[in-house]
Design a protein that fits this description.
The chain is built from 4 helices and 7 strands. It is an alpha+beta fold. It has 2 domains: 47 residues, Arc Repressor Mutant, subunit A, CATH 1.10.10; 80 residues.
Length: 178
């Protein structure tokens, strides 16, 4: 007995060769277009009722050398933590970060928000929010009106830095934008 291949004899989900040729032809005409635009073009210009998924079109282009997968170069994007306040004691700096949103059982969106003490890494609060409106959460936290307590968000967040003050509204943007 000799070893035999485990490869399937037929591929029922394989993209039709004619559609594959259309994808490659459109890519040759439009060198800068990606899978999304080519998928839209297959529907509108060529009348394909069910065009392949964008990931399939991307794989077809890669297989024929029309596209290469981009790689993120390590070290190109510097960490922007030079301006962070280094805490000397607990409760001096809080970090505020929205984690990824998800749907609840009743199809409502939930945006989990965490507030941590940067010195002790103690989680001050975890709140499920209906949206990313952080002001209402920070306003009802104990100690949110304490004097000169900076609060920092995650670098990729929607805002850069917050400062919790006792004067005026509870929150003020630290970078000078009120």
């Amino acid at each position: 007995m000799s070893p035999r291949s485990h490869r399937p004899h037929r591929f029922p989900q394989r993209t039709d060769a004619q559609i594959e040729k259309l994808v490659l032809a459109e890519r040759r005409l439009h060198r800068t277009w990606g899978p999304k635009k080519i998928q839209d073009l297959l529907e509108t210009k060529h009348g394909v009722e069910r065009p392949p998924a964008c990931s399939t079109i991307g794989e077809i282009l890669r297989r024929h050398g029309q596209s290469v997968k981009r790689r993120r170069r390590p070290g190109v994007y510097p960490a922007l933590n030079q301006a962070l306040t280094v805490p000397n004691q607990p409760n001096q700096v809080w970090t505020v970060d929205f984690k990824g949103w998800f749907l609840l059982g009743n199809n409502q969106r939930c945006d989990p928000l965490t507030i941590c003490d940067r010195y002790s890494h103690y989680v001050m609060a975890v709140r499920g929010q209906p949206d990313q409106q952080f002001r209402r959460t920070l306003g009802d936290l104990p100690g949110a009106h304490a004097p000169d307590r900076p609060a920092r968000d995650h670098p990729g967040g929607p805002w850069i830095a917050l400062r919790l003050d006792r004067a005026g509204p509870a929150l003020r943007l630290e970078r000078g934008v009120d």
